[in-house]
Amino acid sequence: MANTVLERTLNNVNQEDLKAGYAAPQGAVDQFGNSIPSGSFAGTDETMSVTGSARAALGLFAIVVAVGTWAWISIPDKNLRVVVIAAALLGFAIVLLTRSKPKIARITAPLYAVMQGLVLGLISRIYENAYSGIVVQAVLATGAIVFVMYTLYSTGILKVTPRFRKIVISATMGIAVFYGLSFLLSFFDVGIPLVFDSGPVGIIFSLFFISIAASTLALDFDFIERGSQAGLPKYMDWAAGFGLIVSIVWIYLEVLRLLGNIRN
After folding, report:
1. Of the four listed, 101, 102, 174, 175, which is most buried by Cβ atoms within 10 Å?
2. At what angle do helices 134-154 and 200-229 cross, to 10 degrees?
């Protein structure tokens, strides 16, 4: 749910760091349309950049892949459930911490990548054992979604307007609450009917979740572009890269579930 992480993050930066000298060029505005004070750090090497954010995201992605590969190969099935639940809960806690304290993103983002590497590696192994070749399909589909969303955003076909932003954030929060409720009910062996089934309704819900997850990428790209223009502090490269990884991980898991439902 990266979009909420990044949207809240810029507010935290405005509160904490603009007072310390990190500020935007004259006339810049944040993602809510509020003006950001101008300052001397904008446009220098001490500020956030598109290149820096991309490098951070690539580094985090490499950690996810490396840890996921190790988890797939090394962690025995008897420990699988415990590791997945523990890593998922720790990952969620890291998301909340990074959202409120973006200054520590260079520390929390790699930790999150490790946790999600464990989750993705083990869940991918489960799906691959059940449906041979599904992981390759999910990886290719996720890559295609990221490429399409970046193309739509970079060419201006998809514009991140205030209305679009509010819709995506609201839907993301709703899905987060839904998944949290589902997780709690699972401890009582209670499942939500239809949504996670392999029938038509389950597939429709999967497509909807994927569309929202993909839409969060547009918010991530928009945040990186405007954050760089606004001259946010350098550590925001890690916060932005972190946000991208959160979105990509979410897309991959939703695609994996959709493909599993279809093949079932």
Report:
1. 102
2. 40
CA distances to 13, 44, 152, 175 from 146, rounded to whole Å, are 27, 29, 10, 20
Q: Which residue type, as a one-letter code, is found at position 78?
A: K
- Cα–Cα distance for residue pair 216/210, rounded to 1 Å: 10
What are 64's two structure tokens? 């996810």
Q: How far apart are CA 89 and CA 146, in angstroms?
A: 26
Phi, psi of 47 (to 5 degrees): -115, 165
Cα separation, 185 vs 191, whole angstroms: 7
36-62 pLDDT per residue, tens: 444 444 444 578 899 999 999 999 999
232: tokens are 């946010």
Rg of the chain over all Cα atoms, to the nearest angstrom: 19
pTM of this structure = 0.83
